[in-house]
Amino acid sequence: MIIVREANPGDEVYNTYGTMGNAALLHRYGFTELDNPYDIVNIDLTLVTKWCSSKYSHRYAKARVSLWHMLGYSGCTSEDAEYFEISYDGEPQLELLILLYIIFLEPEVYDKLVCVSEDLVGDDDQDDEQDTIDSFAKVVKVTRPAKNGVEKLPDVKKLLQSEGIGSALASIADIRESLYGSSTLKDDEEKLRACSPVGERSIYHSLVLRVSERKILGRLRKHASSWPKTKKRKHT
């Protein structure tokens, strides 16, 4: 613990736990908070690959993920797992959106990107969000040469927030939520209200985590469903 101002003997001292989600709070300090705004949901890369394989093929999914990696992108890592974070408000990690963008590329555009991929990779790792944006701007110049002005985050998000990517996120959220079994969010909320944080400590904290994650997945679906729909052409 680091003290930030002088304290006299007998003074009450407060400790801040920082910007930690419930999983970290439970692991480090043994408690959770309802509606913790720092909660996130992790979506494994293997789950995204599973969705892609079901929509296309395993070979297709492997090739698209490989190109994404080749271009210098990656998710978060923990031990041997790679995953993406969904924030409390349902905002998906930028790298996940870029992966879905690459997955949806038409074959001829994908082949074109593969041919120039080595030229697009810089010498440095993508250490921050701006590096990722700059890298993606190069990808856009190859895949959508007529598209200009993709140098800032709002522009990148606008391009990536397509109906197809939104639909993919909803499907991935469904797969992620299926890991909780057949019970609904309402069922879990009722169990949580009836659970004692003292007498049923383990179950209580497990339900807090579970309910929070399911709410975030719901926000992800809502977030993705609000993206612009593709306009259908009128046939004359």
From TrEMBL:
SUPFAM superfamilies: SET domain. One of its GO terms (cellular component) is nucleus. This is SET domain-containing protein. InterPro entries: SET_dom_sf (IPR046341), SETD3_SETD6_MTase (IPR050600). It comes from the Eukaryota. GO terms for molecular function: protein-lysine N-methyltransferase activity. PANTHER family: N-LYSINE METHYLTRANSFERASE SETD6 (PTHR13271:SF34), UNCHARACTERIZED PUTATIVE METHYLTRANSFERASE (PTHR13271).
